[in-house]
User: Fold this.
Amino acid sequence: MNKKMGYRWRLRDLMADQQMFQTSNLVPLLAERGIVLSREQVYRLVTTAPQRLSMDVLVALCDILACTPNDLIQPEPVNQQIRKTAGAQAEPTPIASRRSVIRKPGKQ
Assistant:
């Protein structure tokens, strides 16, 4: 049986540990490290788990929050919902995850 893994994105938790409660607090801190993202991009980065993340952004976040990638990304098994049908055996239905893409301004 295959075990599908997902992860929990802990950026918001680590920001709160540092008394950073507004996503816009990260914009100038990232810019100091050469990462220029709009307020909207930073909001999405904080509030949704990214499917793709540049190493530059990851390293900048780790520097800002004095943490490691292991602190930001917590692996966990993906839950499955069981679909029940009358007279048939239940079969698992995977829960779909949402994808997000973070791009540097000016790059398509």
About this structure: The chain has five helices and four strands. Residues 5-94 form a domain with the 434 Repressor (Amino-terminal Domain) fold (CATH 1.10.260). The two ends are 39 Å apart (CA to CA). The first strand starts at residue 5 and ends at 9.
